[in-house]
Amino acid sequence: MFVQRHKKLVLGLLALLMLVSLFSLKFIKYNNNIEAMLPADSQVQQAMRFLRESNFSDKLVISLKLNEPDRTTEELISATDQLANAIAGSALVNQVIGSISSADFIQEMIFFLQYSPQLTSPESLAKLDSQLTAAGIKERLSFIYRQSLSLGSAFSVPFLQADPLNLSSSILTNIQKLSQASGYNVTLNRGHFISPDGRSAMIIVKTSVLLTEGFGSRKIVNYLQEKLKTLPNYINADIIAGHMHTVKNEDLIKSDIRLTSIIAALGFILLFLFIFRDWRAMIIFLMPLGAVLITTGVTFLVFKSLSYFVIGLSTVIAGITIDYGIYVYLAVRKAGNHPQTIRNIRPPMICGALTTISVFVVFFFSSVKGYHQLAFFSNFTILLCLGFVLFILPHFIYQETKPPKVKLAVKYNFKLPDGLNLILWLSLIIFMLSTTAHLKFNNDITQFDAAGPQVAKSEEEFQHTWGNQELPAIFVVTAPTLEQAYEINAQVYADALLAVGPENFRSFAQIWPGRKQRQANLDAWIKFWTPEKKRKFRDLLAQQGKQFDFSQSAFSPFDRQLDRPLSLDQDPQNLAFFKQLKDQFVLEKKEECQILSFFPDQEKLITQFSKIQLNYPGSFLVSRKNFSRQISEALSGEFFYLVILALLATLGLMAILLKNFRLTVLAVIPVVTSLAFIGGITGLTGLSLNIPSVIAAMVIIGIVSDYGIFMVYYCKYKYQTGTITAVTLAAVTTLIGAGVLLFAQHPVLFSIGLTLVSGVLSGYLSSLLVIPAAYRLWKVKEDVQD
Prior knowledge:
By secondary structure, the chain is α+β, with helices and mostly antiparallel strands. Helices cover 64% and strands 8% of the residues. The protein contains 32 helices and 13 strands. Helix 8 (134-148) crosses helix 22 (531-545), helix 12 packs antiparallel against helix 30 (723-739) and helix 29 (691-717) runs antiparallel to helix 30 (723-739). The two termini are 36 Å apart.
């Protein structure tokens, strides 16, 4: 045989291939984008696409706070300006908003009031008749006069001159409400965003980096953190953004991968030193490592990037593939490396590998792209390692006159009667199943956020400072053009007022409704202000104004609106405040326009707006609670389908490969036991099932089915190839690979580890204790003859 004749060449080629694979790791791009782990459900992808393309995903907030009581707001504002100027000098930053000009803001608001004829409702005009009397005008002018003598007159008087009848009060109120739609309680001090207590300031940073981009998030966060170091000692600053969660989660996963890899390596080394004590056994551990290294490079070439989720499971995959090397090693050491030995162990090995592969193949039927990568990575590693151990490993292990003994010798003389053994097993299964009665399935994606206490503390302080108790939910309307979007948005706003009231909904329609409504308002305005009414109003204003020494031109801005209202043709131009509000509420794209409205993220309101959504095709809701529910609905049905498919694939392959109904039933015992114990232990520990634990359970189906297949082959054929010891060591190595995940701090990896350990351990014990007892009790004619 080629391998036998050219051992050194084969070893050299394998070593070279592993070195190349190891060297290529530095060029591989890794990806922690959450979108790769989400289903292709239309609603979920729609919400993710919105978050990616909206102005939420490219925005960071810096909150600065005075930490010394004797420091003043003036010093805070000065430091805020310096930081804003320093941040602006980077290609990562599109815009820094640290302040707005108060003078410009007043002038803009006065100019915007010229749109009052389009924005004043007919109902408001109907109430105006009672004011157009001598007493009504006098009372109003008296109020304006008193205001002009107050300390804040420089701000209020220009508004009063532009609107002496107070028609625009609702417009100004709505602008203020919209500016706080995100829930933040902000005051303006010299144009800066200052907290009500005057001790904190806010800077908004717009970036081209989306929060779902792991490497970009790290760059912008690192850049901002470097700039924060230049702040004076009396100021603390925190970055509040989804980018922080992306970076911290990535850091934790990397740390967990390093830790678990080291622990797994130490576990395998100790296993080698104290159990095998044969240098050739190192090949068993090197082959899975080499297979994982080679597969990593191949997977990157196929998918163009590697998911941290898949890499995090690499120790588990290594633990699975080590099993095959253990089976071959012990068989050769016990029965020799002649062809018959390999022929004896080949059927159960191939059968076990195929059942494991079939489980991972099922992931290709998932709509989650990240699971396709997991399926490819796992199956390629298994096939590669299987080829190594069947065609290469036997030629490097031979039987000596006095071979070193494997210390782990499992004696198979159990004292319990077979019947009692089965009764105890069935009792445990029933008990475990009973504990699953109240088992919950938790699909809230926030449970997998491990950003850490520092980020949580910063966000808690930010909410306390700026008054945002809960992120709002969003109602999104979609239309081909902006004008159409305005019209739909106005209709949605009208429906929302009836359903939940004005206090529970913030819509751009409050200050800028659709053209039809603005035209109707303008028509009502023109109809109301007849020439006679204009003349009467001007005469009353001139007569009553003399008492307060108002000039004839004092209210000329409002007077001009009576004769020359502004055009309906376009949105207000060159108004910074309007542009900022529009940027917050309107998302214009090439193919469509979206307008956002905000409401409290509460279940009862989500239910109400879900009903409204049905009346407007293309509209959708975005909220943390609703998003979790959408993912849960999409994944629950899909994973039920995948689990059933994995079970059917495993059972079908077992029946085909074992060609015996009884052996197939017995080989399924570890699978049944593992699933029962996973549910039972999860319930007993007070935890909930989640998507990672379901994925791990599917992997376990493939792993423990191997144990069942090897044990039924052992029971039937009695091959002296060290099967019991091999199964035991295989379980130990898998438990090492899975058990290290219990040391992980990230909840996703920990959840996988807990599921794998409980499933593998229970599956192994049932294969070792239950299968032989059931085999002996379930006698058939051919066994009696044997």
